[in-house]
Each structure stands twice: as structure tokens, then as C-alpha cells.
Amino acid sequence: MSDILKRENIFAGCQPRPKEDIIREAGRILTASGYTTEGYIQSMLEKEKSFDTAIGNGLAIPHGTAAGKESVLHPGIVIMTFPAGTEWNGKIIRLVVGIAAAGNEHVDILSTIAMLCSDPVEVDRVVSCTADEIYTMFADV
Question: Domain residues of the chain, as ranges?
């Protein structure tokens, strides 16, 4: 996973804010890192309107719609932790992993993230780590 995750795209200790703001920020980071064009941000927001990306265990995985995959230049992810939690469709989220992927790449990325965060204790562990520790944890998978 080290080829799709840059150390500078990990943000530990984020403050709670509206999910739309978090999705926009994740999209801007993906765009600034060269993974997507700006159109992907709107695609991520559209996806959230039709599909709740909070998947359980305090984890949300915002990503774009099928049509938004045209805006993906290279697969990439951004990781944000919210130790105090942040509200997301009535749930409390502590870990957000924004994904940019086209084709079947997103399935591999999603399965890796799901494996790493398959239990709330693992999510707690990630949330308690520094950005460098998170990078090492995800890059080694």
C-alpha cells in the first residue's frame, strides 16, 4: 500500500467538523497530491448522498461515484483520525480513509482497509497513533 499512501496525506488528531467539510478536504488532498482532478471532490460528495460511507467500527471510507472514476489519475488514499469522534450520518466516526481509485483497484484498497480496521479495537489503535506510526502500519500491508 506504500505506493498509494504518502506520509504527508495522513492527518492525526483532527478536530470534529461536518462530514461534507471532511469529504471536501480529503478530496482537495487527493487532488493536490496528483491522484485526481478537482472533479473528484464533487463525485465524493455525490457518492455520500446516495451511499453512507460510514461502514462501522467508527470508520468512514468516502470515495467517488462510478462516473467520478474518470477524474482519478492514480490510485491514492488520505487518512484522517478524529480522537474525539465526529458525527457522520448519525454515527460517531473516528477514522476517515478517503480513496481515489478507478477500475477494480478500489476493491483491493477497500479490502486492505477493512482487514486493518475489522474490529473497533484496531480502529482505536490507529486513532491513538501518530501520523508516522499510521504510515508504517498501512505501508507495511
Answer: 7-139
Q: How far apart are the first and last CA of the chain?
A: 6
| Model confidence pLDDT, tens digit, residues 56-99 | 899 999 999 989 999 999 999 999 999 999 999 999 999 999 99
Superfamily of domain 7-139: Mannitol-specific EII; Chain A (3.40.930.10)
Q: Which of 7, 79, 74 is nearest to 36 (CA)?
A: 74
Active-site annotation holds for 63: yes
pTM for this model (two decimals): 0.92
Q: Rounded distance, CA 4 to CA 66, Å?
A: 19
Rounded CA-CA distance 47/49 in Å is 5
Run of H or E including 110: helix 105-116
3-state SS assignment for residue 60: strand
Q: Which one of the listed residues 19, 47, 63, 106 is annotated catalytic?
A: 63
